[in-house]
Every structure is written in structure tokens, then in C-alpha cells.
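Journal club prep — side note

Before the paper discussion, L.F. wants everyone to see what a predicted structure for a comparable chain looks like in C-alpha cell form. Sequence:
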Amino acid sequence: MKHALKVSIAALLCGNAADSASSWGQVERNPVLFGGQQFGARSAAIKFGIIGASVGLQLWFVKHHPKSEKVFVIENFALSGAFSAAAIHNVRVSK
């Protein structure tokens, strides 16, 4: 696994963590994460489970198809940006 993929996975996890931390205790709007209820341990477990499964699939796919790594690096950085933007929004809304 190349350095870029490792860094993109770290960015993805950090963005997800920031979004989760900024959502904690607020009403969740995503129906997959029990929309309408407070974001808490159950929602965080689902959220991190989805990300964990995604990373696992990426690692498996890159192992068997090394040329696909660039696509996953771009995807991870894009998602980390989206999660970070959601975290910034959550912090602004909660004030």
C-alpha cells in the first residue's frame, strides 16, 4: 500500500471523527443513522462501521487491483472534505 492511500484513509477517519464529535447530542437528520433521534453511541457505531467496512473493501480491492488505488485516494480525500464541512456546519449551527 502506497503512502498516499494511508494518508487518505487517515484523513477520512479524522473527518468522520470530527463530524461525529460535532454531531454528538444533536438531532440526527440522516435516516440511516436513526434520523430524528439524538446522535449518540448507536449512530456513531453505525457511522464508523460503514467507514470501517469501506476501508476494508478498499484495501482488499487495491491488493487485487493495484491500479485502482488512485481512485480510492481521491474518493477518501473528497469524503474527508465533505465530513469536515459537515463538522464545521454542525459547530456553527450549535452555537
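L.F.'s comment for the group: The two ends are 41 Å apart (CA to CA). Keep this in mind when we get to the figures.
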